[in-house]
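Entry 14. Structure prediction run on the chain below.
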Amino acid sequence: MGPSDDIVILADWGNSSGRLFCVRGTDLEPEFLDEVRISGAKDTEDCAKEFETATEGWRQTYDIKEAWLCGAVTSNIGWTTTTYAPTPARIEYIKSTVLDTRSGLACHFLQGTSILKNVQGYFDTVRGEDIQAFGWVALTGLRNGLLCLPGTHTKWMTIKDGAIETISTGVTGETFEVLDRHSILTRGGKNETGSEAAFLRGVDIMKSRPRPALTHMLMSVRNLQLSGEMTAGESRDYLSGLLIGENCAASLSQRPASDIHIIGDGALAERYELALKHLGCSTRRHDGKACVISGLQSVRTSRH
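Output returned:
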């Protein structure tokens, strides 16, 4: 089998969920054969076993010899722990740890990226989203920009001359999940249609100058229901607006003159785009799956 016919498994396996891709070829946009979703690394007791089960059909069908993995699966809550490449980090600096699976597949676990002091002045890290950032560079040909990667832990990165220069993490998605499920704020309310007005009301509050204390405003999620101004369902959108609005407003100190590039898919990426535009920013959306596949392919082909 020649290099252009290589079939490999690529994995973007984060805290909350994992995506495994079976692809053929070495291009940045290889032939896509199949995809499977798996549980997040933090919820998986045996990552090796879950990986073997999820990929069994592919391994029986194709002559697969290796896999390349990034994300929380390479952290101390995942399969194996890799180190970090320090900023400014370039794709050629990313190292990998190789382990053989029970079926004999060679799995390459990629490093994360770290910064000694971020814009808030403390140590910060990224795993998986850095590979998406390198994929963004490869796909777009852009060498500079501010990236926003929405998620359980939303990452903001500045790219300078193709290298990751800064990293900043906001625990927005996880905070929303905890407050929505385990506090009195929304009482589990659901709003099937969604309320853009309630969401933007939350964003508006957090763009105020001076910005109010988030802990104080969180109580308003409950109080607006008590006053009859919001339903429990609308309060969820309002809570989302407070958290995303605060995260975006706090991150705009890094704002360049050009667009803010959002890497992500689905409703969450749409919400960040809506919030940033409401805050007066110009944005561009990029497909998260395409970026991570491109990034993994870039690392993989640079090693052969």
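The mean pLDDT is 92.
Filed with the rest of this week's runs.
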